[in-house]
């Protein structure tokens, strides 16, 4: 009787080890995907310089210096649902600040990364803001409607 119990324990332990190994492999793959996504995100968030009336050059609504601020060390992007305008803007800002404050609460970083949390009509709204209009995250929040 003892032998069957011992065999069952070993089989259960082996099964648990296989499950743990598969889970660790999945975690490593997700981390690798996150790292690849971060590389792409960081390339797109490199400083964008305004070029008045230059076709094809994206402009931003911030005063000089904001977009030149380096991203936080270890920045990999946020795991945040993009804002489409379907929830309260205050709720979106609270979610945004909660996640971003894990990396930085610097005014320029809050401004610089904000557009990555928008999608659809709200992102379109952001792209239509005038160049050199916004000088702080407080001003951006007011314009966002909170």
Automatic annotation (TrEMBL):
Residues 1-21, 35-59 are annotated as: Disordered. Residues 35-47 have a biased composition (Basic and acidic residues). This is Retrotransposon gag domain-containing protein. It comes from Mucuna pruriens.
